[in-house]
Amino acid sequence: MSVDKVKVFDKATNAKILAMVENIDESRWFHISKLQKGRGVVNDTDAYYFKCKDWSIPKELKELLFSLAPKFEPFETSEIVINRYLPGGFIPAHTDKDRYLKNVIVPLQSGDDGITIEDTFYKDEAGIGIVFNGTGPVHEVKKVKDFRYTVIFLIG
Ligand SMILES: [Fe+2]
To answer: What does the pLDDT average to over 77-82?
Structure first.
């Protein structure tokens, strides 16, 4: 299968957002060590990553991200989440919750890390979003080598 990709941040904007994300106070990040019930499709549902939830994203950054959200008329971006993986961080195979019509996952760095969708690995490309319809296909983030940030736009 192939996934849709969409350019969300140009190079300069991506760098600006990454700097702002790196500056988010530690108290705004939530450590996730288990997949939420109903999401895992593997027996081992341990996870290791950090989430900055919609309401904990600093105001200036949140406004900037909403202004840059990819458009899928007539739907609107309802929520934005930022994920942070430390080296060794991961999220096991799962599908997303079905509350939204589309999820767009935008890495803030290029590199050897990325997302595995079904059996295909998609290397991170800074500013380029991967579009999921609804819960999307089964996907996972295998243990990352470097710090990895993704901005997730929840649409509809
Ligand atoms: Fe997901």
So the answer is: 96
Over the stretch 51-60, which tens digit does the pLDDT of each residue have?
999 999 999 9
Distance (angstroms) between ligand 1 centre and the Cα of 94 equals 6
CA gap 70, 28 in Å, rounded: 25
> Which tens digits make up the pLDDT trace of 7-64?
999 999 999 999 999 999 999 999 999 887 667 666 567 889 999 999 999 999 999 9
3-state secondary structure of 17: helix
Ligand 1 centroid–CA 95 distance in Å is 6
Quote the ligand 1 centre to 82 CA distance (angstroms): 12
Span from the CA of 156 to the centroid of ligand 1 (angstroms): 16
Asked if residue 34 lies in contact with residue 74, where contact means CB atoms within 8 angstroms, the answer is: no
- Supply the pTM of this predicted model: 0.93
How far apart are the C-alpha atoms of 122 and 116, rounded to whole Å?
A: 6
**Separation of 151 CA from ligand 1 center, angstroms?**
12
